[in-house]
Design brief:
Elements: H1 6-28, H2 40-57, H3 63-77, H4 80-97, H5 105-122, H6 131-149, H7 154-175, H8 177-182, H9 187-203, H10 223-228, E1 231-239, H11 249-257, E2 260-268, E3 271-278, H12 281-291, E4 292-301, H13 302-314, E5 320-328, H14 331-340, E6 345-348, H15 357-366, E7 369-375, H16 382-391, E8 396-399, H17 405-413, H18 421-433, E9 436-442, E10 447-449, E11 452-454, E12 459-463, E13 466-471, H19 474-485, E14 492-497, H20 503-516, E15 521-526, E16 534-538
Parallel strand pairs: 5-6, 5-7, 7-8, 14-15
Antiparallel strand pairs: 1-3, 1-4, 2-3, 9-12, 9-16, 10-11, 12-13, 14-16
Amino acid sequence: MEKLNGNKFKAMLVSGANNLSNHHREIDALNVFPVPDGDTGTNMNLTFSSGVKEAQAHPSTHIGEIAKTLSKGLLMGARGNSGVILSQIFRGFYQSVEGKNDLDAKDIALAFVRGTEVAYKAVMRPVEGTILTVLRESAHDTLAFVEEQHSKNIIAVLDFMIKRAKISLENTPNLLPVLKEVGVVDSGGAGFVVILEGFFSELSGIPIELVEDTGEIAGVQSQLENDEFGYCTELIIKLNAEVIPDFSENHLREQLSDLGNSIVVVQDEEIVKIHVHTLSPGDVLNLGQAYGELLKIKSDNMQLQHEHAATFVAEPQQKKKYALIAVASGEGLTRLFKDDYRVDLVISGGQTMNPATEDFVEAIKSLNAEHIFILPNNSNIILAAQQAESLMDEVDVHVIPTKSIPQGLSACVMFNPQVDVQENLSEMTEAFKHVKTGLVTYAIKDSTIDGMNINENDYMGIHDKTIVVSVPSRMQAVQALLENLVTAEDGLITLIVGEDVDEDEQADLETYITEHFDACEVDVHKGHQPVYSYIIGVE
């Protein structure tokens, strides 16, 4: 094959998207930290499917026009850092092929080289040993191969690119020591290789079909609709006595993964709490009953919540000077930001559910304000927020790069509607930089990080990006984390309590803090956030 036409290009994209969908859980599992929030594969999958869906629907067979539509779909659907980088790769790809009706081998190689340039520019501090390295090395080697060998066979050139990408991927642990310590390759790079393999399979006459039992994804055409809505279902189960000896949280998670996503399973002796987003809440209830007695059931229709939210934000508002947007997960945190910290709109999301660029764009459009400040509150959400900022020419938007909920709260405290934009930006940015963040969650697998042995189901205390303690007791974990966080210079501890912590445990922890850190003011909030039992801010 020496020419790639528009129809074949669309088919190639679908095969790549299907291959990524089929393997996205494996890519999620490459997460370095053994926390229940590995989402690189999921973010890349949702991002790429968003773009491919738009490209498929485009009536033209002109590759330049298809690539433009693909780029826009990826741009708006980008989630997480990996999704944003992926969108930038194909933004560069489009820039290179704009105006071309079909492509030859050199066109494709040049397009990926341009994708490399655009993707690197999108990241403030590019890190080698990531998807960027895999892209750069494979794209430049492929262009050199085309030019030196005068190769015109697109299939042979793509095969060469995949081989070079795999070599680069296998070398990522030598560039990032943490990958070597944990024994994995870079997850973003792995996702990029999977997409290329899907492209190659289509061009070789063996297109990748979607594996229907992936649970989370029903196909490229319907993925976004199904993933975004359905039912947010929560159960509390009292395990039957005969189930307890052999009960496995991981096995239950695997069973739930066939029914939905955004899964959290936490066991406390004979009590198990389940959180899952599913299209079949009845099946989740039946599965829960197989394990024991259902003590609590909650299932909210997220489609209706979305419609109600859309109706609400569509109401006309009087234009004002400022508006604040924050990202948070948990009804308690949502109320806290809106009621106590003057945030106008809270986008639901966090570590396990990164909002898309389009979510920020729609939020910005819904607010009738001259100046809008966005608080992402998560390092994996900042790029998507900044991408939305770059798209909004008619509104003055500023992303304040908060990396945690405590940082976001601290920035909000310093917001002053009476001063100008630059003073607000300066004060809010300076405030969050002094906040230390601690997180307590459970380990989903055995691992070794920074020389620390971590056992599955241990509770980990994480200070910023460092795991400082891993023990079987959650109370011991949070106490050790506090000892690590709090110094004599600190004066405020903000404790945000997750949905899996009961009143007795919360009271015990508050007593411990009061007795051991009496020089600090303590601010306690019931955040109801998933995944993290405790979020702690110290300043």
